[in-house]
Amino acid sequence: MSKPENSVSEQIWELADAQCSGIITESEMETLERLLLDHPEYRQDYLDYIFLHMGLASAVTSGELLSSTAIEKSVKQYQAEPVKEKKSLRLSIMQALCLVVCLLSVGLFLLLKEPLQKEVPPQVAEQSSQYYFDDNATPPDEVATLSEVAQATWELIGKSPALTHHFQPGTVKVTSGNVEVAFSGGADISVESPALFGMERKNQGTLFSGTLSARRKNGTDSFTLETPSVEVVDRGTEYEVSVNEAAETYVHVLDGQVEVKPRGRLPRFFWTFDQPKAEPLIDSIGNRSIQAGKNTKRVPGLVGAGAVRFNNRPDASLLLGSGGGKEVGTGDFSVSTGITVEALVISEWKTPNTPQKKDPFDYDEIFRKEDGSYRILLSFQNDDKAGITQIPTVDPGPCLSFGLFLSGMGYSELDMPLDGKEGRPTLEEIRDGKPHHIVATYNGWTGVKAIYIDGKLRMSHRFPVGTMIISGGSKPAVIGNLISDRFETLVGREPFTGVIDEVAFYDYALDPATVAAHYANVQSGKDYFDGQLSKFVLQEQQGGNVLLNKGEKMKFAAETGEPML
């Protein structure tokens, strides 16, 4: 119940009197401030009261303000004193004036505090934005710093939203005003609300939605801006980019020149194992070699000419290399806005139907790149402690696990129980001796992490839109095992049992229709691309890149990235 108005006014005058008398306490001062902020109709009266005391504070005793009774007495004496004594008293008044000015300043502060608060930008932390990195992981390098906040409301998306001056890979959600950041590679970016903007690397960012302007004044490297369908590359240019609700991209060049190219829709790597046995195994996209452990065996393909059998021995492995990575966020296995790992497998996993209680747990790895907490993992697992990293949590037992490190979320695994419930396959169905098409995807544009088996979605979980992957580094990627140290020995500790074929690695998430089409091709005895991979690679290499010059504007389609006239 609110207090009557006369009670409010009485409180203000009592507190003001205590303030002028120099006996107000800290808690009383806070009460006075709150009353004046909540009741602006009394502010002018309060100021008049301060000026009244300026006129009455005409006598000082031992450096302290006199009581109201003493002030009244002093005023009467002043009126009756001779001129010389009045001059002396005027000096006292000047001394008192200094103290009264202080009182007046406090009053003005209280009167002006509310509008001033509206102009103060949000306070931000002076440390890096590593609020989401765990103790077992070395944080990625700083990629950008805060330049300016124009009356903005914003946060880093994740478990513990934070404001900071220094950014490691992560996504900023701007809900009002403008946020300007300076990338360590030399690009200055101004993000207008409402927008969702990801900072990936020192020379790369992602506009999930909204509008930004970009300008380069430092650095020699190009800056790449990713949108749902295109990549915008500049080399010292000023331009504007926006992404609308239909995921269409608008580019307007203000100065210089930019190159706009459709995003790639082929895998970064595709291991078919179809090379003749007398030749080494290579990647079908870039012809990069594979090192095979001695307990792998080349066998007839589940699709095409060849496949590889693994016999659950420590040196049953295919070492793919680091992809050129040196630290987290680098190399060809470093992805940010999406990923797909796709494979055909015949599983002979020997795990029991119940969860294992103690080491060594029998994990069968399909694909793994072990860069500590920034690992990429797709494997069969069975232990009773999986809930530590699960999102969402499921009951212990045999599962197919898909693990990634997501910015703002940390490392977690989507563990699909092999229990036959809610459309999921059973363990017996997985190891029935038949080939199964397994696809694991994460889509940063939707936040959906998913596992497909034989062309159908079997389990998924949604994270906040714009949540990016942090991956890559110096450790090798491996098919059929886990190798993290001394990888030159090709010896690991989580070997696969069975046959693996047609492994593909993408830097984006395949959509459900494409997954179903790939499975249909497999059912027809064809590879995922219906034998047209070489043609598709050539088309992508030739590209449909567009050069835009100063003053030019263009819109690009959401699905294909092609110009829209």
Automatic annotation (TrEMBL):
Protein's UniProt keywords contain Acetylation: no
Keyword Transmembrane helix: yes
Record-annotated FecR protein domain positions: 181-259
Transmembrane segments annotated in the record for this chain: 50-71, 91-112
InterPro entries in the cross-refs: ConA-like_dom_sf, FecR, Ferrdict_sens_TM
Any one GO molecular function term: sigma factor antagonist activity
Alphabetized UniProt keyword annotations: Membrane, Transmembrane, Transmembrane helix
Protein origin, superkingdom: Bacteria
Name the record gives this protein: FecR protein
Organism: Gimesia alba
